[in-house]
């Protein structure tokens, strides 16, 4: 996983310096930029309650400024500057139309900043700041640290990699906002060698203490495991059937397939999500759109200038045709490779299409992902989807000037040399995916991993009739892989001497039966260490410490069984090996565990052997690929392409990045004939679930059907049942965007050409990208809503404002909602107040569905058909209690509820008991001070 040398960081730094100093700006840009800054200064000071002085807005740093041809707007992004230093999290923006008129501006500038700022003279040198940051981030000490680009501390100094970073290390002196004060800090950017983090860290310029950090790498690791566990508790796990076709000599050799053609790729095509939904088909390279990929997708395309890629893709001189191009380089990044690991110039880690550019490779899942044919097929699919994502998103406004990913920017606008490095079967972990988005001019990196095929993992038990058989198991994220050290041998139930269940929880060491455990497979029950967890839960009761204690007692492997006596709670446990675990471990369900425990307690001798099923290759889960690419979109568009720190994903924030990424994934995999009320899931292929059943990696399905997904803004917060973790919060944001997408489709139709401007799906996607450009840095949900409304106003003359308001009001983000607290520019989940009202003058709409039924913010009733219970919910304002009535088709009242507050009807709805009603069609009528509304429902017995 070696980094490629790049000078992009230097170019980005030079651009930042030029923009920060108006005298260095290009002549043709100087006048509109000066006008924009003058307008921003005047409007910011005049804003009510801003208390900004002329000095506060006198000389902001311009991080980026560009003209958006798709909207006719110029977007200029700013950071406050005090004493000649940028203030890290004090951001602003000014957006102007073609005439130079300000159409929108925002800021998070600190009032009277000069008084809040300490001296701009640091106590630590830039070299000392790098060492302090490395120590705080738990990285090795820098070795041979040396300056490679000199500059003023305020503008930035660049150091070499110093043995701790993949990239050269930029360091810059600045202020950090902490409440109403400013702290002098060094900002140090380090790309970890293991590629798991790309830190942008701020250390105190006097003490070296780490004060703040953000990570350019957005990882899915935590949510994948948490949500799989939660979903499997709620429903039975049904694994996807695995292919059982016999291996062929052709596949074993990784030879060409039989369906390909010259100048083509054999892939799962857009919009199909995985091999579960579509066979692989031949896609010609001519599918590369000439407007968005004029040099084609692949280096051998005749449209690319001769010798164009030679300086980056050295394999061109060998005549090889690999999965590399202007938009993406896709390759194998498994750590077992002996050469070319993570190097886009290597000739050994990407499939070769040969002189005819025929990228057709055999795919047989039963052979496992490391089979040469399967590996080549997966990388080819990853290459194709990244190129399609590039073209589709560029057609909607994620283009060169706004910071997209390309080796060469054809227009000369924006910064190039930042194609996506798409790494397949990454060897740095499992059951994960991530995307790193440094600023424009530095490559994005997508890491796709292998996923445990839990449904095909088999633990074979022999020795007692009551226990013999095969059992499902899940692997863990720490310790050696089962392929290196097997879980095999005699099974021994531990006795720690302190915990319940005769000490089976492994809470203390040494074990009472340490002699019996030594040399065998330790059998341990999950949880059960309250006397230890009170003191230190993470150190004592979690999975990894139990395994370590078994290792200390001489065990060769560990099997942990769940404390819940069910068959569904099968979890791929996370955890970082920080305690020297050298033995393998697996996890089985409680039902299976209790069965084996009973056999052992009866005196039987049991022998076990764990066999892994063929892994799933994340490069074939096109929804996850799209999700990861989506992080690059939202991070480059929000706050401008030169600021990748505007979607900080700290727990407790209203962090919406995961929501945009889920939306992009759902959008790219929407097929003709789909409807909004259908349940959609994320990562069913990676999780081994049937596509239509789930659960995938999210807590609830995405659907416009409120009975299946009832998320509202009030879901955010702290306490039982509330969401504050970034992925959970993102689910709520994606839900409302998904609702909006379907309302656009029902209004404007569905367009199969994803590059078109026609169709509600294309219009919705463009609106979302336009909104990202307009919203504030570190937005909250209502900031995001307002940005969509503003984008619709500026580009569509507010043609869809009523629709947008109704959709958001239905999910509790209406006119009377309140976003809550902002701390240091970060919107928190604390203080959120949901509201369901529409603004004055906006009428309640009967939101459409494909079959004409109402999924209305005006009135909805579900489930429909109902059996014993019907929920009636309406986003209707009323100055008096509302009356809910259920009538038969003759107009006779069969059920009545009186004196229901409007807020109750908006938030939770009213539950009606329909258990006594006969099968038939009924009418729900809701009477408010604003009028009477009704809808039909059916009751079935």
From TrEMBL:
Entry keyword annotation includes Aminoacyl-tRNA synthetase: no
Domain Secretion system C-terminal sorting: residue ranges: 862-938
Residue ranges, annotated region (Disordered): 337-365
Cofactor requirement: Zn(2+)
Ranges in a coiled coil: none
Start-end of Low complexity biased regions: 337-350
Ranges where the PA domain occurs: 488-595
Keywords: Hydrolase, Metal-binding, Metalloprotease, Protease, Secreted, Signal, Zinc, Zymogen
Cleaved signal peptide residues: 1-27
Domain of life: Bacteria
Family from the record: Belongs to the peptidase M36 family.
Descriptive protein name: M36 family metallopeptidase
Organism, as annotated: Hymenobacter armeniacus
Phylogenetic placement of the source organism: Bacteria, Pseudomonadati, Bacteroidota, Cytophagia, Cytophagales
């Amino acid at each position: 996983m070696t980094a490629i040398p790049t000078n992009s960081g230097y170019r980005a730094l030079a651009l930042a310096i030029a923009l920060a100093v108006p005298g260095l700006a290009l002549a043709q840009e100087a006048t509109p930029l000066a006008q924009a800054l003058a307008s921003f200064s005047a409007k910011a000071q005049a804003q009510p309650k801003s208390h900004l002085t002329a000095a506060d807005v006198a000389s902001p740093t311009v991080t980026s400024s560009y003209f958006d041809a798709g909207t006719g707007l110029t977007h200029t992004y700013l950071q406050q500057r005090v004493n000649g230093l940028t203030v890290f999290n004090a951001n602003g923006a000014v957006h102007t139309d073609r005439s130079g008129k300000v159409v929108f501006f925002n800021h998070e500038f600190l009032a009277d900043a000069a008084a809040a700022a300490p001296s701009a003279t640091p106590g630590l040198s830039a070299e000392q700041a790098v060492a302090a940051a490395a120590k705080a981030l738990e990285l090795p000490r820098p070795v041979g640290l040396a300056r490679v680009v000199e500059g003023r501390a305020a503008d930035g100094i660049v150091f070499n990699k110093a043995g701790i970073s993949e990239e050269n290390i930029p360091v810059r002196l600045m202020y950090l906002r902490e409440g109403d004060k400013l702290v002098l800090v060094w900002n140090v950017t380090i790309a970890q060698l293991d590629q798991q983090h790309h830190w942008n860290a701020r250390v105190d310029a006097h003490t070296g203490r780490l004060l703040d950090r953000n990570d350019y790498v957005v990882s899915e690791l935590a949510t994948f495991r948490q949500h799989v566990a939660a979903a499997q508790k709620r429903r039975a796990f049904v694994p996807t059937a695995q292919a059982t076709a016999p291996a062929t000599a052709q596949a074993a050799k990784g030879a060409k397939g039989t369906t390909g053609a010259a100048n083509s790729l054999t892939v799962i095509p857009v919009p199909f999500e995985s091999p579960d939904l579509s066979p692989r088909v031949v896609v010609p390279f001519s599918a590369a759109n000439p407007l968005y990929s004029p040099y084609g997708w692949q280096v051998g395309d005749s449209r690319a200038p001769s010798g164009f890629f030679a300086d980056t893709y050295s394999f061109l001189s060998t005549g090889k045709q690999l999965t590399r191009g202007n938009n993406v380089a896709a390759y194998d990044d498994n750590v077992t490779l002996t050469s070319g690991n993570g190097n886009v110039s290597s000739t050994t880690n990407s499939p070769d299409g040969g002189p005819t550019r025929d990228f057709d490779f055999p795919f047989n899942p039963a052979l496992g992902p490391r089979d040469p044919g399967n590996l080549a097929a997966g990388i080819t699919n990853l290459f194709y989807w990244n190129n399609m994502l590039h073209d589709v998103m560029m057609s909607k406004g994620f283009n060169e000037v706004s910071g997209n990913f390309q080796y060469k920017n054809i227009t000369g606008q924006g910064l190039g040399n930042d194609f996506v490095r798409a790494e397949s079967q990454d060897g740095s972990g499992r059951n994960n995916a991530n995307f790193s988005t440094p600023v424009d001019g530095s490559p994005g990196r997508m890491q796709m991993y292998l996923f445990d095929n839990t449904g095909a993992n088999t633990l074979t038990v022999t020795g007692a009739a009551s226990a013999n058989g095969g059992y499902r198991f899940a692997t863990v994220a720490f310790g050696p892989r089962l392929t290196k050290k097997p879980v095999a041998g005699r099974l021994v139930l531990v006795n720690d001497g302190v915990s319940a269940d005769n000490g089976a929880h492994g809470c203390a060491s040494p074990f009472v039966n340490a002699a019996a455990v030594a040399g065998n497979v330790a059998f341990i029950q999950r949880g059960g260490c309250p006397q230890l967890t009170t003191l230190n839960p993470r150190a004592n009761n979690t999975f990894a410490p139990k395994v370590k204690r078994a290792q200390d007692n001489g065990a060769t492997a560990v099997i942990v069984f769940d404390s819940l006596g069910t068959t569904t709670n099968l979890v791929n446990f996370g955890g970082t090996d920080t305690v020297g675990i050298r033995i393998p471990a697996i996890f089985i369900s409680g039902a299976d565990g209790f069965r084996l425990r009973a056999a052992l307690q009866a005196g039987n001798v049991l022998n076990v052997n764990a066999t892994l099923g063929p892994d799933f290759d994340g490069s074939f889960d096109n929804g996850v690929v799209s999700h990861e690419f989506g992080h690059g979109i939202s991070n480059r568009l929000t706050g401008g392409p030169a600021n990748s720190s505007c979607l900080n994903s700290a727990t407790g924030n209203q962090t919406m990045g995961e929501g945009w990424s889920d939306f992009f994934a759902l959008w790219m995999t929407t097929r003709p004939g789909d409807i909004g009320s259908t349940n959609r899931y994320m990562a069913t292929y990676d999780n081994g679930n049937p596509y239509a059943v789930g659960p995938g990696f999210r807590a609830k399905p995405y659907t416009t059907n409120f009975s299946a997904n009832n998320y509202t803004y009030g879901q955010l917060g702290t306490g039982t049942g509330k969401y504050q973790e970034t992925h959970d919060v993102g689910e709520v944001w994606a839900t409302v965007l998904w609702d909006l997408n379907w309302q656009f489709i029902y209004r404007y139709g569905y367009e199969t050409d994803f590059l078109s401007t026609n169709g509600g799906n294309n219009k919705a996607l463009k609106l979302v990208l336009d909104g990202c450009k307009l919203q504030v840095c570190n937005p909250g949900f209502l900031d995001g809503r307002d940005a969509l409304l503003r984008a619709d106003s500026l580009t569509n003359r507010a043609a869809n404002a009523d629709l947008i308001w109704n959709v958001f009001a239905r999910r509790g983000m209406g006119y009377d909602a309140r976003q809550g607290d902002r701390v240091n520019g970060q919107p928190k989940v604390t203080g959120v107040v949901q509201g369901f009202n529409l603004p004055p003058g906006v009428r309640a709409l009967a939101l459409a569905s494909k079959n004409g039924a109402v999924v209305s913010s005006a009135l909805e009733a579900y489930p429909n058909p109902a059996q014993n219970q019907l929920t009636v919910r309406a986003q209707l304002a009323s100055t008096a209690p509302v009356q809910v009535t259920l009538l038969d088709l003759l107009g006779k009242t069969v059920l009545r509820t009186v004196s229901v507050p409007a807020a109750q009807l908006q938030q939770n709805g009213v539950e009606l008991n329909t258990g006594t009603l006969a099968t038939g069609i009924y009418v729900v009528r809701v009477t408010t001070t604003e009028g009477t509304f009704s809808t039909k429902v059916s009751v079935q017995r």
